[in-house]
Amino acid sequence: MRIISNDDLDGLLPMRDVVDALRDAYLDLSRSQLAYVPLIGMWAPTPRTDDYFRCSAVTGNSARFGVAAIRIKSDIVSWPSGTKEQKYAGEPGTFCGLILLLSTVDAQPLAILQDGIIQHMRVGAAGAIGVDIMARPDATTLGMLGSGGMARTFLEAISHVRSLTGIKVFSPTRANLLAYCAEMSELLNTEVSPAESAEDVVRGSDIVVSATNSLQPTLQPEWIGPGAHVTVVQRRELVAGVYERATHIAQLGHSSMPRDAKIPGLQRVKGGLSAYLAGSPEQQARVPRGGDSSSQSYPTIAQIIGAGSTADRLPEDVSLFLPIGTQGVQFAAVGGLALRRCEEFDRGQSLPSEWFLENIRN
Q1: Where are the CATH 3.40.50.720 domain residues in the chain?
Q2: Could you identify which of 23, 169, 268, 287 might form a hypothetical disulfide with 144, taking C-beta atoms 3.0 to 4.6 angstroms apart as the criterion?
Q3: What one-character-per-residue DSSP string does 269-337 give?
Q4: Which positions ≥6 away from 34 have C-beta within 8 Å?
Q5: Distance CA 208, CA 284 (A)
Q6: Percentage of residues in the chain with pLDDT exceeding 70?
């Protein structure tokens, strides 16, 4: 049994290997070799009046690595401005996300990993797979909305599937924007330029990425040019018109329980996620509600891969990819890769397996 920190993973997970691991996972998913349980949350009021406790979990397996993953998050969440979510665990600035890896061969627990690096890399790599399957082969210009961790891994991953020659970025905090452009220019060995507005970023870009934590839409359909490919981190970043603008739409899978599921007590919070809420009606009213701009389901990447690995499109068609759902599959695939690399390079803290096994049948 290994305990693996983000520091243990430093330098062990090249983005190209993460993209390849997810490609294999979605091929296996198209062959029904994998399964996943979508995200379900549990919320409970805290002693304070302006925040909430939230716990969520996803589960999935990896045939390639012979593991199952359960990813658990624990947050204190609040919405001080009404437009962005703030969260922490312990104290502001620290967070709690853990991945438990279990063997699908003998059911033993194999590892507990911090999820920070894996979380960012698996989201970026999934977005890149969507670009590779759906975007025009000659797409070279990219517009990025956001300058955080997801924006970094999205851009790095997409650079492995398309030869990018023009990259524009907008983020409302100027200092963060300039730091991002400098860092990514050096990483990719190509110029990453700051833009003055979100509209400037979207107009004229072959690939448009919105990687923000905004609770509000970040781009408008009239900004999107013919032949563009659009992808986001969350559906809430989109207005309904973007769906109408797109000729081809695909998604990774189902991020939460279906909307028509008749399960007593199950509620929908902002973003359309399924959750069970504790607390009085007044306390529950603090939790943002409202679904996505679209709750419709679309063909999945696994279905497209199973049908031939590419999406048929004309040069002027607009494509939209929703890299949402199948999180458990991603954590199993990338977590399994991380564990294998840590075993090869003797990273992480080893603990006796018997600490995690018992002789009382449960």
Answers
A1: 122-253+292-325
A2: 169
A3: ETTTEEEEE-S-HHHHTTS-----S------BHHHHHHHTSS----TT--EEEE--S-HHHHHHHHHHH
A4: 25, 28, 60, 61, 62, 63, 329, 332
A5: 36
A6: 95
Structure-token pair, residue 26: 């979605």
The letter for the amino acid at 269 is: V
3-state secondary structure 118-138: HHHHHHHHHHHHHHHHHCCCC
Name the amino acid, one letter, at 83. T
pLDDT tens for residues 167-221? 999 999 999 999 999 999 999 999 999 999 999 999 999 999 999 988 789 999 9
Could you tell me the two tokens for 202?
Answer: 């979207």
Assign domain 2-118+328-356 to a CATH class.
alpha beta
Q: Which residues contact 24 (CB under 8 A, 6 or more apart)?
A: 64, 333
Q: Are strands 67-78 and 52-62 parallel, antiparallel or unpaired?
A: antiparallel
| CATH 3.30.1780.10 domain locations along the chain | 2-118+328-356
Rounded Cα distance, 324 and 317, in Å: 22
CATH class of 122-253+292-325: alpha beta
Segments in the chain forming alpha helices (H): 15-30, 116-134, 149-158, 174-188, 198-202, 240-245, 281-284, 301-307, 327-344
Confidence of residue 291 (pLDDT cuts 50, 70, 90): low
